[in-house]
Records
---
Amino acid sequence: MRWDIFCQIVDNYGDAGVCWRLARSLSSLHGQDVRIFCDDLPTLNLLASGVDQSVKHRIDLLPWEASLNNARHPVQAPDVVIEAFACTLPDRYLAGLLIAPKKPIIINLEYLSAEPWITEFHAKASPQAHGIPKYFFFPGFQENSGGLLLDPIPEESTVLAKQVPAALEATWSKLRTNAKRISIFCYPGAPLRKWLEDLDSTGGDYDIVLTHGQTELLGINTGQQIQLPETIQLLPIPFVTQDEYDWLLSQCDFNIVRGEDSFVRAQLAGKPFLWHIYPQDDGAHQVKLAAFLDLYLESASQDLKTASIAAMTWAMPQEWLKSLDAWKLHSKAWRGHLLEKHADGGLAARLMRFVA
Ligand code: TRH
């Protein structure tokens, strides 16, 4: 089948990251032809870099405007149209669909949420004035939701540890053998500096891998002096490919992640993590975070629940770091649980079945 995915980038990398990961799964695992129409092609290209041609050759990355030509070529009408994160289809593109001999299925791919209500709305049709119904697809953790994007499933970190990606070699050569490794990818507004200073008081050495853009959060690039104790080594890295970033997550003792895609990848890496959830004005993110923690910590001991909730709400490491070993075991078990719940192939496979 031919799939058209529409991606409007609100900010950051997540919108493109999710669309690309979905396209990649549909193409490489399910043999589908995919076009992504995106209003910020450089960002999409950045996310899609580093993947070999065998994965890429059935995916077209196109500017948003390229979809408008479709109106004049109804022959190229897609079988499935995805509006990622509720973006609206261009009128002229939609007009093309309306005159196409075979009407496609239109799907609105929603944001990921662990909230229980999504299962009641998942895969439901919403009648549209133009006559082609739109279906709502809710990614989620529950079996009766749209599921998670799994591909590529990270291997156990011990296997991967030997192969340091070229982009990370220089950083890896600086790691200290006895230091704990932490990767950071969070939003502005996090009490990052205080958090790092507090790490020192926990005793031990820490190598902190700062992903692209994170040094700005510490004020390093603006010339501000940052005085951190010697126990803390800061290691800024450039923007790496999705697969390299996955590798990084699997090699750290703790990851700070954000948004949607890195949040899922940290879970699949099977490592403890802090989810810096995307802040929403109406406070809806608090409800989303609580819903996730309910699921994530359902089988955890009371001590671990207290520790992880403290960590996820940016309590200082001193308060919860002593639970890291228990958290490690829990993270492995959670990864296993997710893979078991998604033995059906997860989001891309569920979309394929839904469309069929
Ligand atoms: O970048 P994000 O914060 O993205 C978003 C957006 O803010 C978006 O508007 C909002 O809708 C969404 O979050 C919830 O975080 P996310 O989702 O983790 O996306 C980051 C992507 O970038 C992910 O695919 C991993 C990738 N990545 C790399 O490929 N290389 C890197 O070096 C890093 C740091 C990330």
---
Amino acid sequence: MNNEEKTLVLIKPDGVKRGLIGQIIARIEQRGLKIVSLEMVWARPEQVDNHYPKSREWIERIGQKTAENYEKYGLDLKKELGLEDPYQIGLEVRKWLIEYMTSGPMVKAVVSGNHAIEMIRQLAGSTMPAQAQIGTIRGDFSIDDAARANREKRAIRNIIHASETPEEAANELNLWASAEDVFDYHLPAEEVM
Ligand code: GDP
Ligand code: MG
């Protein structure tokens, strides 16, 4: 397969608690992608801390995005958070993410297939469920949005994590998936897809 890629999927604690494991896995299989590793894990805070990038660039990006959402929804950033600097806001969101991702068990899957990284991002849909397309996992199963999440000082509950880029996928697979738990096998459907 030419563009064969591996990517990491985490069904986040809200997805597990809402009983969506089966439906999410079914959508991945239906698309023709191959599950090559599958396990339930209750992450420790250090694991989640290592999962999200620690670069200044990523932290500022997420802080900037969060700040824009505060403004868009008419929330007073300074009053609500006491912060204005994108980097400081990004650090705060990172803390919310650690709380969220350790609030219950997750299901961790390694998915392989043609353009698997982009395919899974498409299946997942936009980060903000309220804006995600119908037909995507986030669009079909959630109405959470940044305004509510920011007001409640928590991460947006959007059911699933999926690696965004080949670099992210490589780091995340390295962190979450040991080689002996990833299985290479053949799907008969690969012949006809
Ligand atoms: P993803 O790759 O689509 O999950 O999105 P990002 O990598 O940009 O963000 C990581 C996670 O941080 C998201 O899945 C959300 O749970 C959370 N998040 C992102 N942006 C915001 C925001 O503006 N406010 C809040 N409260 N959480 C956010
Ligand atoms: Mg991301």
---
Amino acid sequence: MTTPPADLLRAAREAQARAYAPYSHFPVGAALRLEDGHIIQGCNVENASYGLSICAERNAAFAAVAAGATSFSEVLVVGETAGPIAPCGACRQVLLEFTEPDAPVWLVGREGALRTNLRELLPNAFSPRDLTPED
Ligand code: THU
């Protein structure tokens, strides 16, 4: 357990407070640091047709792309789990599209935070590099 960057945590908690989660009652916030220092926020948004719901991480990633950014230098996710929240598999794959495997990923719960990265979260992943093999 370690201490995450205060600005990213603040941004993610702010987004978490705006989560639309009337079905799961499990609000999640995400914050992405861009290469230029800007922070992009995301929260989960659920739907009465449950399968259409989207996680905080993917909302943040897609908002970043819509804002013109396709490279994230640091990621933070916060949820109301006891220990560090675990991003779903779909979000791990989407974050890897835009985040170097060794870039810091902070997973925050009620009782502390874990610093990890996408190499650990998604080992042996299929990544954009696999589509353009050098040999
Ligand atoms: N959720 C996220 O937004 N991110 C995670 O890392 C885990 C799960 C959302 C999806 C759904 O709205 C709710 O949390 C319960 O699964």
